[in-house]
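Email to the structure team, subject: AraC-like protein model.

Hi all, the expression group asked for a predicted structure before they design truncation constructs. Nothing fancy, just the tokens so they can compare against earlier work. One-line instruction: predict AraC-like protein, return tokens.
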Amino acid sequence: MLFDDLEYISIENQTTDFPKHFHETFCISLIYSGIEQINFDNQNLFSEKGSISITNPYEIHSNPLIDKKTCLKFDTIYLSNDLMKYLLNGKSITFLNRKINSEKANLLFVKLKNAMNTRNPEIIECSLKEFVNTLKFHSQENETEYIKQHIKGFDDINCYIVDKPVKVNHVRRMKVSIAN
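Reply from the structure team: attached below.
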């Protein structure tokens, strides 16, 4: 099925910083409470309650906590670049503006998450198309493939990850899970 790799996580009370890492997918998060911080090489992004944050595939970033006493609650949906291109008729996109404040996008995010819980391919596809069509207005066309644009290999990744060395096998399929 086309949506086999479609995943989301729900974080109710993040208490741990995430060190530098990347994902092979677009990471699209809806913030419910608190302030999410994402640090990129040359930019820090702060997303508050009611906003959506987006990290592009293979973008090296970290997620430090601003205040460990403040509850950070969010959901993140992971969309592969291939799935995004399929939904956009072969068009490759990137998000330079990584923060979206749109009530419509928020509602469609929640609708997609709920559709994913049904495991019904038709419902998921319909909700996914609606959501991606809303997101595309906040994106730009990407001229190059992500892996070629951002990294040439795992040696490049290891150069970025200086705080905590990560073995290549762990970087290939890093997934985040947090226990409440």
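Residues 160-180 have pLDDT under 50 and may be disordered. The radius of gyration is 16 Å. Ping us if the truncation boundaries need rechecking.
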